[in-house]
Amino acid sequence: MGVIARYRQHLPVGPATPDVDLGEGSTPLVPSQNIGRALGLKHLYFKYEGLNPTGSFKDRGMVVAVARALEGGSRVLMCASTGNTSASMAAYAARTGLRAIVVVPSGEIALNKLSQALMYGAKVVALKGNFDFALQTVRELTSHHQVALMNSVNPDRIEGQKTAAFEIVDELGDAPDYLVLPVGNAGNITAYWKGFREYHAAGRVSRLPRMVGAQAEGAAPIVTGTPVTNPKTVASAIRIGNPASWEGATSARDESGGMIAAVTDTEILAAQIRLASSEGLFAEPASAAPLALLFRLVRDRKIERDSTTVVVLTGSGLKDPDAALKNVEPPIELDGDARTLAKVLKL
Ligand code: F0G
C-alpha cells in the first residue's frame, strides 16, 4: 500500500484522483542499537527513508503531486533537482506515461541519482550553474508553458511528505520530543511540521516535537540568515544557497522551540561512517548531517537522556557511494588461496 491509500483522508485526493503508487512510505522506524547507548540516549530511532522505491523520501510527495497533475490533465512534468527529486519524478512519470524533464546543476549531482533519472526515461538537462539557478530557471519556464512544476513549491509535494510524520506517530503512539532532519530546499521540515500539527489538531498526539534542522556549513543560509551565492558541501543533496521554503523552515523551528544549525563536512562524513558501521544503516551524506548535529547537541547537553529522538535518514547510501568510499579502507587485493587468505586476515 502506498501513502495515498494509507492516508487518503489526510491528503488532497478525491475519487477521481488516480492511485499511481509504487508502494512508497511505510518505511522502518529502526531503534538504535549502539549509537543511542553510546550517547546515553534511551530512545533514539532512525526513520529509514532510503527504503522508498527510488531510495529517498521524495517518493512520498511525488506520488501525490504526480497523481494530482495527472488528474488535472498535465502531460509534461518538470523539476530542478540535486538528484533525488529528479529520480523520483522520473519514476512516477514513467509509471503514468507522462513526459519528464529534469534540470540538474551540471557536474554537481551524484552519478547514481543521474542514472536513475536516465533509466526511468526522463529528458535530463545538466544546466551550468548551481541548484538555485536551476530552480529559478524551471520556475520561470513552467510559469510560461503548459508544464507542471514538481518541486516542493508545489503544495501537493508537501502534502505527501507530511505522511512521514504520521507514520512516526502511528508507530510510537505519540510525537517524539525531537525530530532531527537535514534542511536543503526546506520542503521536508515544512512538511513534517505540517504533519505533526495536523495530527495534533486531530487529537492524535499529546505534544508537538521540537524540530531540529541540520544544514552543511558551506550551505547554511537559514543558519546565517542570508542566501549563499556559491554553496559548497560534500552533501550534494543539500548544496542549496537560497531555499524555496525558507519561511516554512523558520516557522517550524520557531513555533516548535527547535533550532537549525550547521555541521561541517568532516562531521557529516564521520557521522555517515559511524551510522553505517555501528548500526548497519547506510545513508547518503545529507542524511548523516542530522546525526552529526545530534552528536554535538548531546555533547553540549542540549538533549535530555530520557527524551525520544527520531533522526530522519532521508536517502540511501547507495545513492552516492563515491562520497562515502573516500573515507574507508579499500578492499584488500589478493591473488592466493585459503591459506594465504587466512594469513592476510591474521586468523
Ligand atoms: N536529504 C536528501 C537525501 C535530499 O535529497 C534532500 C533534498 C534533502 C535531504 C533536503 O530536503 O530540500 O526538503 O530540505 N533534495 C532535493 C532534490 C533538493 O532535488 O533532490 P529539503
- Gross morphology: globular
Total DSSP E strands:
10
Unreliable runs, pLDDT <50, ≥5 residues? Answer: none
Radius of gyration: 20 Å
**Beta-strand content estimate:** 5-15%
Q: How far is the first residue's CA from the last residue's CA?
A: 47 Å
Would you mind describing this structure in some detail?
- The chain has 347 residues and is α/β, with parallel strands linked by helices.
- 43% of the residues lie in helices and 15% in strands.
- It contains 15 helices and 10 strands.
- Strands 1-2-10-7-8-9 form a 6-stranded mixed beta sheet.
- Strand 3, helix 4 and strand 4 form a beta-alpha-beta unit.
- Helix 4 packs parallel to helix 5 and helix 9 packs across helix 11.
- The longest helix is centred in the middle third of the chain and has 15 residues.
- The protein is globular.
- The structure holds ligand F0G.
Write out key terms for the chains shown.
43% helix; six-stranded mixed sheet; 347 residues; four-stranded parallel sheet; binds ligand F0G; alpha/beta
Provide a short characterization of the protein structure.
Helices cover 43% and strands 15% of the residues. The chain is of the alpha/beta class.
Layout: helices, strands, pairs:
Blueprint: H1 3-6, E1 29-31, H2 35-39, E2 43-48, H3 58-71, E3 76-80, H4 84-96, E4 99-105, H5 111-119, E5 123-127, H6 131-144, E6 148-149, H7 155-161, H8 163-172, E7 178-182, H9 187-201, E8 210-216, H10 221-224, H11 246-256, E9 259-263, H12 265-279, H13 285-299, E10 308-313, H14 321-325, H15 338-344
Parallel strand pairs: 2-10, 3-4, 3-6, 4-5, 7-8, 7-10, 8-9
Antiparallel strand pairs: 1-2
